[in-house]
């Protein structure tokens, strides 16, 4: 029994943003498990079984991966970005909690370049001061909690990064998020809509909150909102290191 | 004139966590600029000039790097972790703002594995739900702002990541931070002290806020504090994906 489980972050899309640690785990794996488009990023090879699955079955997927590791397989669960940021690492530990026998398995979490940092790098340095990171999907939490967090984040003057801003199943919610942000931060606050960074579909757009519209985002978009000091310089957007600089 | 400037994140320490994109930039560079211990991580080679400099001279370093790029050199400014998280990217754009001629230079920001995500991966998935990221150094902001942000973050029930928790020049401040957190989050909230993750000096320690003590942190430590639902499972610490799960 030399099975193990690695939960690996593939980064935002480009091969050049996959860490050597993740490449090494994939090279040793017997099985790759994950959401269909992420498994599709792993090159097939003899001896490697690919197990793509649909979205929203994270716990089933976690259990299946743990079962294979327990049976002696070398399993990599792939997430895009970083596995610990709104991705598979938490689902794995939920499954371990429900089935304590799994806790003795060899489990490793392999970090990756998460979408907000790839987006920030492309835009300049909008997250260069204190910031917060919020998942706008309400599958797993009530919208009232999202609203509370938005208002606290704005009053703390955090820069903000939003994952999963918009989906077909809840088209109106992101409009409400933008309204709350305009109320709290004013119309001139800068926002960056960063879609599919580092892939051929990459698109970056910087607007003020007054100009921001829900349809600028889809599920491949990360939205970054600056703090009160965030500004443009040339084609870049950045947040100064010093809170006093205005 | 084919000079350029790349601001590159070297990740938390291990070679296996440096992206191929950053390696490629270093392979093409004529000059590497940065804080002494980060420049020391770059392998010397003929044709590569290393320019290590002391801490707290970020703006001078940024100007020197931009001047070299303007003079046709291929310059990599190195940060540990990610360059956009409390690192050199913001300083570069501050220098560009002060000297607009720099704005036409070929500047790229190359993301890296930031310390909080490397630490979270080692601990399990403590940042698996909404979280915030706060620099506790008060060189560049008043402590009152740190306190305001801590209280908002706690009331929003964000998990939290703290960079630069403690230094010789301000030994008492982190004690005050822990007091505020105990007040806001209660004594049982979990905290992870992660030092020098992915290096031979790595040390991870999980405690409750009641047990947390300032001397558990130094400037190579990132401190992660869970949200109200963060829990232990086996040797791991994780935050469930669902806000309802308690």
UniProtKB/TrEMBL annotation, chains A, B:
What is any one GO biological process for this UniProt entry? Answer: methylation
Pathway, per Swiss-Prot/TrEMBL? Cofactor biosynthesis; adenosylcobalamin biosynthesis
Task: Say which enzyme class the record assigns.
Answer: transferase
Q: Which EC number(s) does the record attach to this protein?
A: 2.1.1.131
Tell me which InterPro entries the record gives.
Answer: 4pyrrol_Mease, 4pyrrol_Methylase_sf, 4pyrrole_Mease_sub1, 4pyrrole_Mease_sub2, Cbl_synth_CobJ/CibH_dom, Precorrin_MeTrfase
Q: Which Pfam families match?
A: TP_methylase (PF00590)
Give UniProt keywords alphabetically. Answer: Cobalamin biosynthesis, Methyltransferase, S-adenosyl-L-methionine, Transferase
* SUPFAM superfamilies tied to this protein: Tetrapyrrole methylase (SSF53790)
- What is the name of this protein? Precorrin-3B C(17)-methyltransferase
Q: Which residues form the Tetrapyrrole methylase domain?
A: 5-212
Give the molecular function GO annotations.
Answer: precorrin-3B C17-methyltransferase activity
